[in-house]
Batch of 2 targets.
Target 1
Amino acid sequence: MTVHANATVCIGAGHCALRAPAVFDQNEDDGTVVVLDTEPDAEHEEAVREAVTLCPSRAISITER
Amino acid sequence: MIAGGTSADLVTAFALPVPSLVICELLGVSYADRAEFQDRTAMMLNLGTSFEELLRVRDEMREFMLQLVAQKRAQPTDDLLSGLIHGEADPALTDDELVGIVSLLLIAGHETTANMFGLGIFALLEHPEQLDILRKDPPLIDGAIEELLRYLSIVHVGLTRVTVEPVQLGGHQIPVRAMVLISLPETNRDPDHWNEPGALDVARPRRPHLAFGHGVHQCLGQQLARVEMTLGFTELLRRLPGLRLTVAPEDVPLRIEMIVYGVHALPVAWDPPEPRR
């Protein structure tokens, strides 16, 4: 799985960072999304999928290999 | 609550004040104003409130919020409302918009988590084998909360939509301009999605549920609710050994007339602390 984020549409709700903290964080200045791991291990994939459905501004997406 | 002895109404001693303190603190609402505010919220969410009363309460609530906005405009403090007013929003948010945002967050932050605590503890006390599993294995709490959210689905009424074109859904044809009522409790017990959906199983594998809604407008506060519940349920179970009802289960007053389901009161008792040596 490859994780993509578009910080320009992100509203900083933080659902992703709370649901999948190993993969997502928030920018210290404006709270927008920061991807910590663009190719997360299998153990994090379920949480990442849920984070994608949680995002209110559709700022994160995944492509499956 | 613990300082007060070994029995209490869990709703007034814990379930309502804890989420209330949290949301008041985050938004910047004086906790001293909460009683007045909680009474109005309860009336707005009561299905038996007459239309005239509803309008009156709505106007009072709006007045309360406008004063709050004016106060934070004049004297910003370190909270969400001051941030919305004095932040970089361009164009700046109007008073009407601010009142709308704060009203929604304040009501949503009070009623939902509070009822999950009250009804959740009631459900666990009524399923002692599940309570036992959770007490013996506290790390199960994250999954247990998702299961309680699914099993209880406290938002019982609401979520109406009107179709703008005919819709084919799940083998049913819904005509245009029909009102569609989505039942979250029913959806969250869909037998195609869960094994034994009517059973409370705190060790159930985590699966997506609709307790917080779905799509771009799903609950914005759900992570806050999860944090409050994780800490709240963990500490209630840890610090109240032998927790039990002090009335018969059928005498627990249920919120059948409210938009958000739960218990009006939950009289409980627990064992005194071990004497210190």
Target 2
Amino acid sequence: MNGMEVPLWAALPAALLLVCGALLSLIGSLGLLRLDEFYARIHAPTMGNTLGAGCVLLASILVSSALAQRPVFHEVLITVFILLTSPVTAILLMRAAIFRTPK
Amino acid sequence: MNAILPWAIDFALLCFSLAMICAVLRLLRGPTAQDRVLALDTLYVNGMLTVLVLGIRLGSPVYFDIALLIAMFGFVGSAAMSKFLLRGEVIEP
């Protein structure tokens, strides 16, 4: 537990970003559970995938930069990877759903 | 005042656990196969974010590599399953 050593100027925005990202991911997954059709359901988790992951990765960058006393940017790799790959999966899944739906 | 970060980390872990439970329920219930693939996609993203938050909490750089590996293999798995649903074959000759 290293929450005590993080300075306040980094801890406050990191906590705010963590709460926002966690709530966005929870709302996205709740939408995945509650919506009633596949074409409506595929919209919900994209919010958690992009904005929620972006918030949590930004909080991680802030905390690790504050702990290392220098800018640390290697979490940008995961952000770029998620932003590149989640539309590919969504397009493939949507085409599979259109192909498999009985006319 | 500086105890706000551990509180936020605990709250985020709770929210990600609930989100993973929702995804698992959709994975078990899902009427069609593409619903299950979508639930698996959501599940791996939420698991990756959980690992990242644990990395913030424990202050170890190892968790970043685990999260990167989960992201890469999760994308490969989701793309392979979607391709299988689309064409009936993953790697076509």
